[in-house]
Amino acid sequence: MTILDGPDCTTMAEVRAGVDRLDTELVALLARRFAYMDAAARIKPARAAVRDEDRKAAVIAQARAEAARLGLPAEVIADLWERLVEISIAYELAAFDRR
């Protein structure tokens, strides 16, 4: 089945195929993001350096601004990024502890 862009879908099968494809791509992108968390855990000199509230705020603000630029609900994206960053911090702390 050809994967259509959302606005071109006329059936739920087309919508679901597109969402499934995007979910696969999103997981691959998250794997790349978590590889950066592994690198950060390897590079940072101390466990206390893992949590950086200024950086967290900047990452969330950047996601909020990009969402607004794309016409998406900025606060929803900011909430999603808040969770993503917290999960990433927990992952990085675990990676730090493993090294």
From TrEMBL:
<protein>
    <recommendedName>
        <fullName>chorismate mutase</fullName>
        <ecNumber>5.4.99.5</ecNumber>
    </recommendedName>
</protein>
<dbReference type="InterPro" id="IPR036979">
    <property type="entry name" value="CM_dom_sf"/>
</dbReference>
<dbReference type="Pfam" id="PF01817">
    <property type="entry name" value="CM_2"/>
</dbReference>
<dbReference type="InterPro" id="IPR036263">
    <property type="entry name" value="Chorismate_II_sf"/>
</dbReference>
<dbReference type="InterPro" id="IPR008241">
    <property type="entry name" value="Isochorismate_pyruvate-lyase"/>
</dbReference>
<dbReference type="InterPro" id="IPR051331">
    <property type="entry name" value="Chorismate_mutase-related"/>
</dbReference>
<dbReference type="InterPro" id="IPR002701">
    <property type="entry name" value="CM_II_prokaryot"/>
</dbReference>
<feature type="domain" description="Chorismate mutase">
    <location>
        <begin position="6"/>
        <end position="96"/>
    </location>
</feature>
<keyword id="KW-0413">Isomerase</keyword>
